[in-house]
Structures are given as structure tokens and as C-alpha cells.
């Protein structure tokens, strides 16, 4: 606790002169209270050397109090002393490591930004967005030949092809449906009490054709969007 | 040949629906309906399509097996009821 015999003697004198302290008070009141929170490791050779190069007439105790807020770890006291007052050594220059246990004491005031060694496992934070391989082929900066509509986008070309197929099938279905619906009713020659009609089949063909036409339209819009995206990518990447 | 054409038509999407103009579907008593609407052809033949299926002579069961005479014969001259 006491950093030097002189400090211990002064503390004893202060305790003797002070009135009896309540039970819930610290047993070391007085002007030497900062000495009680000295966290510097004691060395066999006595007090630590002057860390900031400043000399005090009161001895090494003020030197410790001066060094306490500047170096919470105090493990690099020799380096502070070697650096001298001109060396810009701050909290950011110190890197507390796990190889210096016991230096960080709970309750010890220190800089808010000082890292505290912890036993928690290191969290591996994934990057926000994984790197995208640009040269994968589909929509990259490479000059991709294609129509002026798709700007080299393979997805756009696929959508255009699928849309064309759907549109062709839809057009055929619509034509067939119209032909079936327009076909007049006919008496079944095998059973005169019945009629042969193609209207239900025509309605079904029309419905399928309408669905395929809608698919063709949406696919065309998606292809157009893919083409514009490819165009923007080409414009962004020289 | 006609059956083949019918099968082909059905395969192409054709549907068979009852002929609403035929006397068979006009009334339960089809002969009476023909007698009321066309007195010169008071018989309803399911094997004929012309004239709503009404014929002058009673259909021959051998030539037209699907023919069934009315339960109430042609003496019902008041029309169709029920």
C-alpha cells in the first residue's frame, strides 16, 4: 500500500491526528487518500522512477499520482520514463495485452477509450457485403456483345427468349380460342338430341392465351429492367 | 366414319351438350309437346334432328331403339302439364 517509508510515516501521523472514523468510512482519510489507490506494481528497488521527468519536493508519491491517470496499466512505466517529457506518449500509444495480467484493476478510473483485456472470445464480424466476383461473366465490365436492348446481359437475353416463347404460345392459344369460340353449334350426327360445341374449349384456350400474354408482357418488362441494370453497370464500370 | 369424326371432334376440344331445341328436351311428354306445337307431326323421335325431332309417324323401336312413347298417349290434347 505505502510506496515508501516516508509516506507510511506520514500516513500513520495523519491517522493518529484524525478523529475516530465511523465504521462505514475508509480507514485512511486525509490528504493522503490518493496514495491508497496506488495501483503501480511495486518493484524490489522501491518506488518507480520518475515517469514524466517532473520532480516534486514531496518525493515519489506525487510522481505516482501524476503517472496514474496517464498510464492506467503502468506496465510501461520504464518506457514512459525513457521517453521523457518530450515524447508524446498517450493512452493511444499503449496496447494492453493479455500477457500483462493484474494490471487492469476493477474500479480503477481510466480513459474511456482505453481497451480492457477481456476473456471473451473474439467475435469475428463478417464484412457487410462479400466481394462479388466481377469477372463471373454475366454482368461485368467485360464487353459483352448483345443486342442494343439487353446491353450484353445474359439474364435479359434469357428473359427475352422466354418471353418470346410465352408470347408465341399465348398468341397461338388466343387465335385457337377465338376460332373455337366463333365456331357455330352443330347437331351431333350420332345423337340428334345433342349438340357439339367448341365454346368451352375456346374459352379455355382464351384464358391460357391471356395468361401467356400477361407472362410475355411481364417477362418483357423484367428483361427491360435487366437490360437497364446492365446498362448502368456498363456505365459505372469503365 | 361418323364415330371417328365424333371422336376426333371430342379430342379436339368439342363438347356435347343437350340440344335444347329437340322435342326430347322440351318436355317430359315429348310426343304431347310435338302434338301441341306441330299437329301434323305429333311424334317425337330421338333419332331425327329436323323439325325439333317431331315426325309424322310413330318411330319404329327397331330403327330407333331410344324412342320411348309417353306414358300418357296422344289423347292428352290439353297440352303439357307437369
UniProtKB/TrEMBL annotation, chain A:
The chain crosses the membrane at residues 159-182, 203-223. The keyword Transmembrane applies. It comes from Nannocystis punicea. Keywords: Membrane, Signal, Transmembrane, Transmembrane helix. Residues 72-99 have a biased composition (Low complexity). This is Meckel syndrome type 1 protein. Residues 1-20 form the signal peptide. Coiled coil: none annotated. Residues 20-130 are annotated as: Disordered.
UniProtKB/TrEMBL annotation, chain B:
It comes from the Bacteria. Residues 59-82 are annotated as: Disordered. Residues 70-82 have a biased composition (Low complexity). This is Secreted protein. It comes from Nannocystis punicea.
Amino acid at each position: 500500500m505505502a510506496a515508501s517509508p516516508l509516506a507510511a510515516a506520514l500516513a500513520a501521523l495523519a491517522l493518529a491526528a484524525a478523529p475516530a472514523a465511523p465504521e462505514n468510512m475508509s480507514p485512511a482519510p486525509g490528504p493522503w487518500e490518493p496514495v491508497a489507490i496506488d495501483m503501480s506494481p511495486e518493484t524490489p528497488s522501491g518506488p518507480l522512477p520518475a515517469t514524466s521527468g517532473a520532480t516534486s519536493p514531496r518525493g515519489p508519491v506525487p510522481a505516482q499520482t501524476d503517472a496514474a491517470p496517464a498510464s492506467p496499466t503502468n506496465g510501461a512505466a520504464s518506457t514512459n520514463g525513457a521517453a521523457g517529457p518530450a515524447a508524446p506518449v498517450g493512452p493511444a500509444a499503449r496496447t494492453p495485452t493479455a500477457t500483462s495480467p493484474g494490471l487492469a484493476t476493477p474500479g480503477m478510473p481510466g480513459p474511456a477509450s482505453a481497451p480492457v483485456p477481456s476473456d471473451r472470445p473474439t467475435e469475428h464480424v463478417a464484412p457487410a457485403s462479400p466481394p462479388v466476383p466481377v469477372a463471373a461473366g454475366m454482368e461485368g465490365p467485360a464487353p459483352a456483345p448483345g443486342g442494343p436492348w439487353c446491353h450484353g446481359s445474359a439474364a435479359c437475353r434469357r428473359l427475352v427468349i422466354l418471353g418470346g416463347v410465352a408470347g408465341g404460345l399465348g398468341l397461338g392459344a388466343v387465335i385457337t380460342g377465338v376460332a373455337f369460340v366463333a365456331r357455330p353449334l352443330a347437331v351431333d350426327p350420332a345423337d340428334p338430341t345433342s349438340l357439339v360445341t367448341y365454346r368451352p374449349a375456346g374459352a379455355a384456350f382464351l384464358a391460357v392465351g391471356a395468361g401467356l400474354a400477361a407472362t410475355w408482357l411481364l417477362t418483357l418488362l423484367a428483361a427491360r429492367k435487366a437490360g437497364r441494370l446492365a446498362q448502368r453497370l456498363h456505365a459505372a464500370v469503365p | 366414319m361418323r364415330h371417328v369424326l365424333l371422336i376426333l371432334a371430342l379430342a379436339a376440344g368439342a363438347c356435347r351438350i343437350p340440344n335444347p331445341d329437340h322435342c326430347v328436351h322440351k318436355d317430359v311428354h315429348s310426343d304431347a309437346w310435338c302434338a301441341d306445337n306441330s299437329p301434323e307431326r305429333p311424334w317425337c323421335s330421338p333419332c331425327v334432328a329436323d323439325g325439333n325431332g317431331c315426325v309424322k309417324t310413330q318411330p319404329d323401336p327397331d330403327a330407333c331403339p331410344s324412342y320411348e312413347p309417353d306414358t300418357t298417349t296422344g289423347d292428352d290434347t290439353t297440352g303439357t302439364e307437369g
